[in-house]
Amino acid sequence: MTVYVDINRLDGEAANLSELQGQAALFVDVASRCGLTPQYSGLERLQERYAERGFTVAGFPCNQFMGQEPGTADEIAQFCSTSYGVTFPMYEKLDVNGPDRHPLYDELTATPDASGDAGDVQWNFEKFLVSPAGEVVARFRPRTDPEAPEVIAAIEALLPS
Fold it and tell me: Does position 13 have pLDDT exceeding 90, yes or no?
């Protein structure tokens, strides 16, 4: 299995996550109406801080947690742009758990967190760090701030000096 799966961008254009190969990436299921939505600010700061060193955030809107991402693709794009100035790539709204889970999340959820727990995504803003070779190397639960020391250290460990 691989994280390099076919997926649509938020604008509906077909893509494959292999376009991220060669970069470290933080895959995050996101939502516009969640108590954790302000994490978009930290995610964008990571994008700005590390993009030139071969890093990107990749956002995957999800409406599975109390309907906190009800918008259309256009509404999500508008919200991210105007509210948080998001410049990182955003992909189609998808399911991260359950019978309609996107194949990408089959791979991601097999990865354990620092406590050794794998399985379903707990909530919006769960983060998966992917190496430039496409290997899932770390998992951070939703309440972990994107700029927490352990996230920064894991990202920096994957980037060239």
Answer: yes
Catalytic residues: 34
Give the E-state strand segments of the chain in sequence order: 6-8, 14-16, 24-30, 55-61, 127-130, 136-140
pTM above 0.85, yes or no: yes
Neighbouring residues of 59: CB distance < 8 A, sequence distance ≥ 6? 28, 30, 43, 80, 86, 88, 89, 90, 91
Dist. CA 78–CA 10, nearest whole Å: 11
What pLDDT, in 10s, does the model give residues 55-78? 999 999 999 999 999 999 999 999
Give the whole-angstrom CA distance, residue 120 versus residue 123: 9
- Domains located in the chain, CATH noted: 6-158 (3.40.30.10)
